[in-house]
Amino acid sequence: MKKLKSAPADGLLDELQSTLTNGSVTRRVETLRRVTDLFLSGAIDYADDQIALFDDVFQCLIEHIEVSARALLANRLATADNAPRGTVRALAFDDTIEVAGPVLSQSERLDDAALIEAARSKSQAHLLAISIRRVLSRAVTDVLVQRGNTAVVQSTVKNPGAEFSESGYNRLIKRAADDDDLAAGLGLRPTLPRHLYLKLLAKASDTVRQRLEAAHPKQAADVPTAVREAAQRARAVPAAVTKQTEIAHALVKSLYEDGRLDQHLVTQFAEEGRFDETNAAIAALANVTVATAENMMLESRAEGVMILAKVAGLSWSTVTTIIRMRDEISGGEPADLAACKATYERLRSSTAQQVIRFHRMQQKVPVA
Length: 368
Hints:
Strand content: under 5%
Number of strands: 0
Structural class: mainly alpha
Distance between the termini: 76 Å
Helix content: over 70%
Largest sheet: none
Order of helices and strands: HHHHHHHHHHHHHHHHHHHHHHHH
Shape: elongated
Number of helices: 24
């Protein structure tokens, strides 16, 4: 085999020609083993054109060999940093999971485009292999969450290297309504956005809440309603306060201090479903703490939003946008906007201020 390493590309292909054309399956497998040994013995030293040569040879050899030989090749190439991309792709799209699994789950030579194509077209076993990769982008997890069965979705959620888009998280929350294990797994993810954490807990079963309490026993708290309970626990559980939440609060604080925080920005935040920014903005304009605003924003009825908005001097059109965002987050029945409008128009600023003072006092009372 030393001759293969030193021979030019044409010489290597000529030497293999008899095996590819006339060789038995056994001879092909043996040749594949020898070529694989040669490649792995010096993979870090090969130039791109040499790797391309190996790619051609591998793909020619694997077309007519048995599953066990392809699976062995897949296992050997899965962790090779310079594994030939074409070969890895061919193995990844093999219908047999014993062949595809090792490269789908480990090979860094598969880009997102290949992973997404495989996730959209291959079996659930292939999706499960993808779900355990060291790193998963939002684009890939979107497909896994959409197409994957229960095992795939739960595996993806448990993967600490997986990232999820807003739409991916929302789809997971919908699926979690009938899957306590999934709901618990979601609730324990440190990157779950705060507003989606609240939405998850608002819909979660008692079993799920108990499991999340067990993970954070010192922060467990009893509150009267499901939505208020979600808000209380979100403040107490460290996993609920993400880096994104901190960034959102810092952004709003900066806008407020610079005199740039206005009704237009509040409306924009709410329209985009950015709960953290909306909540922090209305808190700043109403001169209450973020915790007070959050508690009022997520009450079972919309009065809390209207009281905050009245103190902040927001127009009804902005209030409508906030209520709609709030309804989407809480997962409850949509508010009667006509009735809310009538209430908002009757509500006096002085009355709203009195309610705010009451909530401020409540915030100072420690939870037993």
